[in-house]
Design brief:
Blueprint lengths: L1 E4 L5 E4 L10 E4 L2 H10 L4 H6 L5 E4 L5 E4 L1 H7 L3 H4 L4 H5 L20 H12 L3 E12 L2 E14 L2 E9 L2 E2 L3
Parallel strand pairs: 1-3
Antiparallel strand pairs: 1-2, 4-5, 4-8, 6-7, 7-8, 8-9
C-alpha cells in the first residue's frame, strides 16, 4: 500500500500490510506540510485534528495523550479535560489500566497491541495502517472485549493514533 501526503501529494513510501495491491493509497501528512499547516498558517491544533474526520489522538513518547479531536470525545463520551494528560489505557477504559501499576506498567501492557503499535511508531517512525487490536474494558465483575482497527503516524515528536474502527463501526473515510 502506498502512502501519499494528503496536501501536496508527495510520495511518503509504502506501508506493509495485509493488502498487497500497490494501487491502494493511504493519505498522511508530510513533514513539510505539517509544519506549514500548523506553524506558518497558525491553524490551531484542535481545528486541524477536528478536520481529519476519524477519531484521532495525539500521543507522546511516554504513551500520554496530549490532544484529541472532537470525534474521539464523542466516541468515548468524554470531554477533552478527562482525556488530555491521561495514558491510552485510561482513555479507552482498559481494565488493566486500573491496576495499581497503571497503564503501561502492568504485565498485561507488553501484549497491548495499541500500546505496542504507538511505541513502535515513535521508535521507528514507521506508520501502521488498520492494525487489528483488542482491549478488555469494564469492571472486574463486568468485562467485555472491544475490537479496534488503529493506524499510527509519526508527526514531529508525537504519534497520531487514528481509530479506524471500533466494534465493527468503521470511521475511516
Amino acid at each position: 500500500m502506498r502512502t501519499v501526503c494528503a496536501w501536496c501529494g508527495e510520495d511518503l513510501g509504502s506501508i506493509p500490510s495485509g493488502v498487497r495491491d500497490e494501487h491502494v493509497v493511504s493519505h498522511g501528512l508530510c513533514k513539510t506540510c505539517s509544519h506549514h499547516l500548523l506553524a506558518q498558517q497558525g491553524m490551531p491544533l484542535a481545528d486541524y485534528l477536528d478536520g481529519l474526520g476519524p477519531p484521532v489522538l495525539v500521543v507522546d513518547g511516554e504513551g500520554t495523550v496530549r490532544a484529541a479531536n472532537r470525534q474521539v470525545q464523542e466516541l468515548l463520551q468524554r470531554d477533552l479535560s478527562s482525556i488530555k494528560g491521561s495514558r491510552g489505557g485510561d482513555v479507552f477504559g482498559c481494565i488493566y489500566a486500573h491496576l495499581p501499576e497503571g497503564c503501561g506498567q502492568t504485565m498485561h501492557c507488553s501484549a497491548c497491541t495499541v500500546r505496542r503499535t504507538v511505541m513502535e511508531t515513535h521508535r521507528t517512525g514507521r506508520s501502521r495502517t488498520r492494525v487489528p487490536a483488542y482491549m478488555r474494558q469494564g469492571k472486574p465483575e463486568d468485562v467485555h472485549e472491544v475490537e479496534l482497527l488503529i493506524s499510527t503516524e509519526l508527526v514531529g515528536s508525537h504519534v497520531l493514533l487514528r481509530v479506524d474502527s471500533l466494534d465493527g463501526c468503521d470511521f475511516s473515510e
